[in-house]
Write a structure and sequence with these properties.
The protein has no helices and eleven strands. The chain has about 120 residues and is mainly beta.
């Protein structure tokens, strides 16, 4: 089992940047593919980005491709989401999640086993 804690959210103007961090404890992070999801008020939680166990392959939602970058440091048990050129529509609670399946890198909420508590990102227009 792994525990996840997100940090780095906040209020930023449109066009600005934020870097979210996800700290893992418990089982080693290299056992999991990792993902970032977000949930805006009144909307379903949606996929943002994911990364394979060794960090070699990344996946992004079309809405963030070219603006967001997911990365991981397995030695530090950390996952990051660098968010650039932020837009008002990026406003949401952002969640870090871990997928224990050895056969995939999930892009659906139900494919992830462990979740953090979320961190609020607010982009003012």
């Amino acid at each position: 089992q792994v525990q996840l804690v997100e940090s780095g959210g906040g209020l930023v103007q449109a066009g600005g940047s934020l870097r979210l961090s996800c700290a893992a404890s418990g089982r080693t992070l290299s056992s999991y593919a990792m993902g970032w999801f977000r949930q805006a008020p009144g909307k379903e939680r949606e996929f943002v980005a994911a990364i394979t166990r060794n960090g070699g392959i990344t996946y992004y939602a079309d809405s963030v491709k070219g603006r967001f970058t997911i990365a991981r440091d397995n030695l530090k048990n950390m996952v990051y989401l660098q968010m650039n050129s932020l837009k008002h529509e990026d406003t949401a609670v952002y969640y870090c999640a871990a997928d224990s399946s050895p056969l995939r890198v999930g892009r659906r909420v139900d494919e992830y086993d462990y979740w953090g508590q979320g961190t609020q990102v607010t982009v003012s227009s």
